[in-house]
Specification:
- By secondary structure, the protein is of the alpha/beta class.
- It has a single domain, classed as Phosphatidylinositol (PI) phosphodiesterase (TIM Barrel), CATH 3.20.20.190.
- It is built from nine helices and nine strands.
- Helix 4 runs parallel beside helix 5.
- The protein is globular.
Amino acid sequence: MHDWSQFEPILRRPLTIGHRGVVREAPENSLAGFERAFQEGLDGIEFDVRRTADGVPVVLHDATLDRTTTGAGPVAAVRSPEVAALELRGAPAGMHRVPTLAEALARFGPRGHLHVEVKTDRDASGAEAFGHEVGTVLRSATLAVPALGMSFDPAALRGLRAAAPGLDLALLLFDARDLGPTRAREEIVGQAREVDAAFIGLPDTSVAPEIVAYFHRWSFQVVTWVNVDDAAIRRGVQSHVDRMETDDPRRLLQRLSVLPRRRTATTN
């Protein structure tokens, strides 16, 4: 357990989110992994969505089926019934299949926070259309708290916003370690404002107090991933990040256990 007494008394526990579920105990992006995340006491889950050949958002990270399923080839080339019949790797045969976005929302939407990352192939027209499809599904779901729609692709975020005007959005950054110059930070702020994002997403290796403080000054909340080691967790807390996605829920929750919870889980 960390002793935070040497730091400011205003430190608060960020929201805790299972990155692709609990990947150390269940296949990534599986319903079992999502269930485990809530059992561990996390505030919510993060998962990725891809578009099938017939336009159905399914819960998968990679552009191809090979690594995480018993299938092969591009996700976008296979129809949703065929994808749904595939098994997820890393578990006994027949135990886990690929869920659709609608299935994940129906089961876990009433349970807590959902971070939904829209994966694209950087084709602006296709990305915006897929973002719109995902936003349409999210808009009709029953959710305990507003979901967070996320993407590295601004076009996908524009599609999400068009379909679901009330949805919180996060612009994700691949690497923010070179955001020292003010101009670089201003460009990120401009991109986030252009898509009406309320959050900036950073890998934990990019987290620093001055960067998080800069985005907070511009009224953005900050979400980070994957927060599995003590150094990253400490850096995130000291930097006042708002949400932490993790691949190691037990470690994160143990390290944060002495911190008071935030008063609100909604955007500023």
